[in-house]
Design a protein that fits this description.
The complex is a heterodimer of chains A (309) and B (337). Chain A is mostly helical and 309 residues long. Chain A contains 13 helices and two strands; from the N terminus they run αααααβααααβαααα. Chain A starts with a helix and ends with a helix. By secondary structure, chain B is mostly helical. Chain B has 15 helices and two strands. The chains are: A mainly alpha (309), B mainly alpha (337).
Chain lengths: 309, 337
């Protein structure tokens, strides 16, 4: 139980907010708006799971927002060119994985600092996309939205898909050898190497997985609207890093638990609708999210000071 | 820390050649690029990011990072407008109060980083959101401050002895920071902290106080940049300076400062700022799309880190190459998971 104390405290904070909403603004619990909110956050959950793994590997990836935008537009163009969704979706995941592999090759292969590499690719991908597309929106054909399903069925499908990815990654990072490699490399790359793990290959794999998940998330975002916004994914990198940090994954690597990211993301995501329902000005959203991040940081710091006298 | 003298030219020399090459190239390609007016324009548009990059240099030298400076610029611009218009203060007094707020906000970062021993990346990610959110909350996202008196706008739009007025505070900050980083024992201690925080502590350096100093300085300079931004644009808005933190970090890293801390220079940062500013202005004059400068900036950044000088520190030790450095003296790896 103590092992998951951090995850439980985040979940408890989320529960308090949800209870407060139930008392003061029961309108929050209307089924359809709530489902829409969750479906909107589903892509972010997928990216946050990947980001959590990247942080556990003691790396960082701030190019996910740009990867997301590039894949969104490409997937939109493929769909508009009458590719069936069954073909466009794998293509999107592969494209994302290729973008991730580029980061991974530079970080793991050349040993460059990941924060600089992904800063460079973040700027390059986004500006390159603007250069080629001049900010044009992509119109999707009729049947593409919600996979051609009714809206609520499509939303349930996206939600289920995101939860599936979450469960798979949380279990995989606990039970699979490859998942344990990520923790080992993030904890101490040299010790992991001496233990027979290949740190470079592991790091490369994590970046490829991150890119693939960003691609999947982009596809999940594309099907939610009739048009593709070329600026989608702006700020996604800091949003997902914040969600991972709030859920208790330290940037120092080697620790943390992917089970927690769901509560962390929902805690940040429910600020905006909660403000609307409690009739507070919505402009407070960022300030409150910043407060939540700092609160999580302070809790972690105080906890650690007590743990290590 | 120059442990072994590289046989290749220093990073700064190389970057200086890049800047000169850019200048010559755009002079040849672009119409009216080399004119005095355009040079003034480049200076005018690069002062704010230049200030942030200057203040970011000591932060990164200590192995830290400050993501909050762009948001703080927005918050300070709003506070300045608020004090002047709603508080009825004269611009100089409002400016002083704004500088005070900047230092206070930097102090918040510093307190969280040094007192709680949390990584700067995370702390400043939190304040990045907090400061921008406060700016938006104060203005409700719509309020902007305009109609500043001409005596104040002089700072951002006019020139003194043929040089844009904002170049003078910029030069003052640049010289002061250069002296601090390169000519005092404090500057040396920044590098020592970035190179080996624990070692610096054993060497008797007051690590916490030095770290606090660099974050307070960053806040102070961000406030100054906010005032200059307001004077140049003639308007204070909540979204002022969005994304500037990443440009500043890019300029610092391009200037040869190691993102792991411990090595770097203020003049390198100045050259980095110049390289970025000339690139984005020159491409417009060469009638290339603006976006090309973003792509080229990314490529330049990758070349700068992958270039000949950096591998000495990075490829030399496999552990450091794969490890994001523990950015804090006391992020002891307690494996209690």
């Amino acid at each position: 139980m103590r092992r998951y104390a951090r995850e439980f405290s985040v979940a408890a904070a989320l529960l308090v907010i949800l209870l407060a909403l139930a008392v003061f603004a029961p309108a929050f619990y209307q089924a359809q708006p709530l489902l829409s909110l969750l479906a909107r956050e589903a892509p972010a959950l997928v990216v946050t799971c990947g980001m959590a793994l990247v942080l556990i590997c003691r790396q960082i990836d701030i190019s996910v927002g740009s990867q997301f935008a590039v894949v969104s537009v490409c997937a939109g163009l493929l769909t508009a060119a009458n590719w069936p969704l069954a073909a466009a979706a794998p293509a999107a995941v592969l494209l994302g994985a290729a973008l991730g592999a580029f980061n991974g090759a530079l970080v793991a292969g050349l040993g460059l600092p990941s924060i600089v590499v992904t800063l460079a690719t973040m700027v390059a991908w986004r500006e390159g996309l603007r250069w080629l597309r001049q900010g044009l929106w992509v119109d999707l054909p009729e049947g593409a939205q919600w996979f051609g399903l009714p809206q609520s069925a499509g939303q349930w499908l996206l939600l289920g898909l995101a939860l599936l990815v979450w469960v798979a990654l949380a279990l995989g990072s606990r039970l699979l050898a490859a998942g344990r490699f990520v923790y080992a490399v993030g904890s101490d790359a040299e010790a992991a190497r001496l233990a027979g793990i290949r740190p470079r290959l592991t790091t490369f794999g994590v970046f490829v997985l991150m890119g693939g998940l960003a691609g999947l998330a982009a596809m999940m975002n594309v099907v939610q609207s009739p048009q593709v916004d070329p600026n989608s994914g702006t700020g996604l990198e800091l949003k997902t890093i914040a969600a991972a940090v709030v859920s208790g994954i330290p940037v120092s690597g080697g620790r943390g638990n992917i089970w927690g990211v769901l509560a962390g993301l929902l805690l940040l995501a429910c600020v905006s609708p909660a403000l609307t329902h409690l009739r507070v000005e919505p402009q407070w959203e960022k300030a409150i999210q910043g407060g939540i991040i700092l609160g999580a940081v302070a809790a972690e710091g105080l906890h650690r000071r007590r743990a290590i006298p | 820390m120059n442990l072994s003298k590289p046989a290749l030219p220093r990073h700064e020399t190389f970057l200086l050649l890049v800047v000169i090459a850019e200048w010559l190239c755009f002079n040849w390609l672009g119409r009216g690029f080399g004119s005095l007016d355009n040079t003034r324009d480049i200076v005018r548009h690069s002062v704010e990011i230049g200030l942030l990059a200057l203040a970011m240099t000591p932060v990164i030298l200590t192995g830290g990072i400050d993501l909050s400076v762009g948001s703080l610029l927005g918050l300070c611009a709003i506070l300045f407008g608020k004090l002047w218009r709603d508080g009825g203060l004269p611009p100089w007094l409002a400016g002083l109060c704004t500088l005070g707020l900047g230092a206070l906000a930097g102090g918040l970062n510093a307190a969280l980083i040094t007192r709680l021993g949390m990584p700067p990346l995370i702390v400043t990610l939190g304040t990045w959101s907090l400061f921008r959110g406060l700016a938006e909350a104060v203005t409700r996202g719509v309020d902007t401050f305009t109609n500043f008196p001409p005596s104040f706008l002089f700072l951002g739009q006019d020139r003194l002895a043929g040089i844009p007025a904002q170049a003078f505070p910029f030069l003052a900050v640049a010289v002061a920071l250069w002296l601090l980083v390169h000519r005092t024992s404090w500057g040396r201690s920044f590098r020592a902290i970035g190179f080996a925080p624990e070692g610096a502590r054993y060497a008797g350096i007051p690590v916490q106080r030095r770290l606090a100093l660099v974050y307070v300085l960053a806040g102070l300079v961000a406030a100054l940049a906010a005032i200059i931004y307001t004077a140049r644009v003639g308007q204070a808005r909540a979204d002022a300076g969005t994304g500037y933190e990443l440009f500043a970090i890019t300029a610092v890293v391009l200037g040869g400062t190691s993102i792991f801390g411990g090595a770097g220079s203020v003049h390198g940062t100045l050259l980095g700022v110049a390289a970025l500013a000339i690139l984005s202005n020159g491409l417009v004059h060469a009638r290339q799309p603006r976006e090309a400068s973003g792509v080229l900036t990314g490529v330049l950044l990758l070349l700068a880190v992958a270039g000949p000088r950096m591998p000495l520190g990075i490829l030399g030790s496999p552990r450091k190459s794969l490890a994001k450095p523990s950015r804090q003296p006391q992020t002891g790896e307690s494996n209690d998971a």
